[in-house]
Amino acid sequence: MVPKNHLTSSEIFAFLDLETTGGNASYDRITEVGIRFWQDVEIIGEYQTLVNPETRISSFIERLTGITNAMVADAPVFAGIADVLREKLDGVIFVAHNARFDYSFIKSEFRRLGQAFSAPVLCTVKLSRYLYPEFPRHNMDALIARYGLAQVRRHRAMGDVSAMFEFFRYAMADKGQERFEEALRFLLKRPSVPSHLPADILSDLPRCPGVYRFYGEKDVLLYVGKSTSIQQRVASHFSGDHNTNKDVRISESLRRVEWTETAGELGALLLELKQIKGLSPLFNRRSRAAKTLVSIELAANRSGYLQARLVREIEPHRLGDYYGLFRSKKDAERALRGIAQKNDLCNKLLGLEPEREGPCFQRTLGRCNGACDGGEDVVRYNLRAQIGFHGLRLKTWPWQGPVGVVERDQATGRTDILVIYNWLHITTVHHEDELHEISVHGARVTFDLDSYKLVVKALMGQDGRQLTVIELPGTGEPDVLMP
Question: Each residue of 227-244: pLDDT tens digit?
Answer without folding.
Answer: 999 988 888 787 654 455
